[in-house]
Amino acid sequence: YDDTSTSTTAIDITIKRNWAEKWVDYVDSSKWLSVFFCEAQTIKPAIPNKEESRGLKGFWKEFVWFISAVIRGMAQLTWNDNIWTGLGILAGACVGNWCVGICAFIGCCYTTGFPLLFGPPELKPLVGSGIYGLNGTLLGMAMGCFDARASQARAFDDVMRSCCRLFLPLSFMAVFCAVVTQWLNTKWTAKTGIPACSWPYNISMWTWIACATLTTNFQTIYTANPVSAPQYGQVTAEWFFRSWMTGISQMMFSLNMWSGFCLLVGAFIGSPSSCFLTIWGSLIGVVTGVLLGMPFNSIIGLGVIGFNPIIYATGMGGQFVAPSLVGFIWMTFGCVLCGILAQLATNLAVLPWGGGSYSVPFTMMVTFMFGLFQEDVVAR
């Protein structure tokens, strides 16, 4: 080495890249793949302004933006702002029952459009993320599932007939759900900082079931099939796996395991962590149900026990609270309590009177945990 030398020599170093790095480079170099896998904010249609909303072209932009908001509203079932997640959930709902999927889309359209028509302009970005469509999606799925005729419709004409029969009551209840959502956001969330979550859906569904059971035009699965005695069975590996996956399918009120796979694919595209938390929540629900001695062939085997733990896991595992080890522990603890509350509701309300607890265990746990967070009783 010569200190007085000013010449340099370039050394060509080739670094071997693994398959994951090559895949990332391939996605980045492809326009369509990068759009498919990128963050939701990047592929969300821009909010049209007043100038862009005029004429046929403006109407088309508004329509595309609204449909995007509706699909994202369905994606909020796993607390994702991603159109691919919403399409996966919609596909999963239709795989289980076409009436459930169609009613979910209609309900989401109403609860998404209501704040656009009657709310302040400042709500439009929030509406575009789909957050207002969550309760409408749940309401549509529940009404399509718990209506006796719609739940049994399989042929095309039966599906269309059931959807037409449910259209008016679903429209009314979806508007009612949107009003309750706006009222809770103003009177409750704005003052306490605690989200209303799915309370509007629960209130609307209880109202619908109470009214439907007093009429002869609509027959619910509770009045058509009175609640039977709990059915117990033997725990096997096959039963455990089916119960685990059916719990995910119950997010779309379906007993078809393929509905759960559709949801997992959509959740993975939107957020791999949400996909993991969905699986984790269903697992905790099944394990909690087995340890509590719940009926194997009815409550656990049908996946009902997994509904609330999954919503709680995906919400509190990284959406409402920053991801951390402490947060994961609190989330798991909350999933267990959701299972216990679901059993309590089953014993006190479902079995004696019929009806359902819906997502009340989840909303109660979120309200309770946010209260603890705000009082600094526990660390986030």
Brief characterization of the structure:
69% of the residues lie in helices and 0% in strands. With 380 residues, the protein is mostly helical. The protein is globular, with a radius of gyration of 23 Å.
Describe the structure.
This is Urea transporter, putative. It is a multi-pass membrane protein. Keywords: Cell membrane, Membrane, Transmembrane, Transmembrane helix. The chain is mainly alpha-helical and 380 residues long. It has two domains: 40-226, Ammonium transporter fold, CATH 1.10.3430; 228-380, Ammonium transporter AmtB like domains (Ammonium transporter fold). The chain is 69% helix and 0% strand. The chain has helices spanning 19-29, 31-37, 40-43, 55-75, 83-96, 98-118, 124-128, 134-146, 148-152, 156-192, 199-212, 221-224, 237-249, 257-270, 272-292, 296-300, 307-316, 325-353, 360-374. It is globular. The protein starts with 18 loop residues before the first helix and ends in a 6-residue tail after the last helix.
